[in-house]
Amino acid sequence: MINKSPNYLHQLIDLFKEMGIDDQVVLIGSWCELFYESILDAFEANIRTTDIDIYYHNFNQPQKEVPFITAMEEIGFYITESVFPTKSKFINEELEIEFLTRLSRNHSTTEKIKPLNIYAECLTECEMFGNERNVIKCKSVKYDLEIRVPTPVAYCMHKILINDSRKMEKQIKDKQAILRLIPYIMDSDVYCQDWKRIFNSFSKKEKKRFLNNLEKIELSKSVFELCK
Amino acid sequence: MSLNYLKDVLLEELDRKIRAKEVFENKLNNDYIYTQVKIKTVSGRKYIYVYSVKEKRDKYIGPYNCEIESSYKELIKKRDKLLNQLQSVSEDIPKLEKMVNII
Question: Do residues A175 and A160 lie in contact, with contact meaning Cβ atoms separated by under 8 Å?
């Protein structure tokens, strides 16, 4: 496991606040697990990735432009853009930061986050993070960081939903994360209800995909019961 | 942790370092190209020049102005920071390559 210093995350979170976009962003991906350590008793984060993924739902908000790219350079993250499709990525010597967003009406693979002047990848599976009920503002006491992250249930269900599209190594890693979170979910009535609500919000296609992936992950029958 | 898993982690890290190196080199060659601010006095009047590594010559900026001078000095500081970042990733790449080859 490569353990990256959360100092960079600290700088990034401060920058989001400074730019007034902290209410627009949701930290997704395995870095969320750092925050779950504060809300789930004895939970241990397992961060192997060198990427920080940020979900940005309202790509036209805020209405005024912010000097985001310049501010990122100030903290040592430089922008690089792929051409087909245009997608922005910020790189420093330790980490890469990518932005993701919802699918727009024109079904483009990427979308411009206008106020930030950057391009984000559109992923339909991430849209659940645009629903405020699936997101919590979470403080990591250990690292003194605060940012919006998916609820543990939304995080876990998203990992299950996308499991079939991941590379084999990542499938295994995701499975480990799922298996570590499931006991916390099964132990809480609130989380179980949340699971049912999110499952019911899936499209027919997503429900089928989710159940197929659940079967592959070989979770206990009680987890399947939550999907009825 | 299996060796394949470890190799995968190291390869991922190596790819990322190579990408970072390319980005830093690109920035240094195209954006952060000034290395020195020079104040030249001609007929008793001060003018600002900056040395461009891209053009390999002093580039005329304009009559002396304290704010312009400090903005270019700031840009040079950022170049120095970027050079340190480039050095850091450049040193990491052969180390990672060596580790990948061992596995």
Answer: no
Closest Cα in chain A, distance from residue B39 (Å): 26
Contact status, residue A174 vs residue A30, Cβ threshold 8 Å? no
pLDDT recorded at residue A105: 82
A-contacting residues of B 2-31, CB under 8 Å? 5, 8-9, 12-13, 16-17, 19-20, 22-24, 26-27
Q: What is the pLDDT of residue A5?
A: 64
Kindly report the number of other CB atoms within 10 A of residue A158's CB atom.
22
- For residue A4, name the pLDDT band (cuts at 50, 70, 90): low
Question: How much is the average pLDDT of A128-142?
Answer: 93
Q: How far is CA B16 from the centre of its chain?
A: 17
Please check the confidence at residue A3 and state whether its pLDDT lies above 80. Answer: no
Ranges of residues in chain B with a pLDDT under 50 are: none
Closest CB from B12, B19, B81 relative to A91? B19
* Minimum distance, in Å, between the CA of residue A2 and any CA atom of chain B: 8
Supply the pTM of this predicted model: 0.87
Three-state secondary structure along B3-70? HHHHHHHHHHHHHHHHHHHHHHHHHHHHCCCEEEEEEEEECCEEEEEEEECCCCEEEEEEECCHHHHH
Residues of A in contact with B22 (CB under 8 A): 80
Average pLDDT score, chain B: 92
Q: Which residues 39-78 on chain B approach chain A with CB closer than 8 angstroms?
A: 78
Yes or no, beta carbons of A1 and B9 under 8 Å apart: yes
- Show which residues on chain A lie within 8 Å of chain B, measured between beta carbons: 1-2, 48, 50, 73, 76, 78, 80, 91-93, 96, 169, 172
Quote the CA–CA distance of B76 and B73 in Å, as a whole number: 5
Q: Mean pLDDT over residues A150-177, rounded?
A: 91
Partner-chain contact B27 A91, CB within 8 Å: no
Residue A31: C-alpha distances to residues A35, A154, B15, B20, B61 (Å): 8, 14, 20, 20, 45
Asked if B86 and B22 count as a contact pair (C-beta separation under 8 A), the reply is no
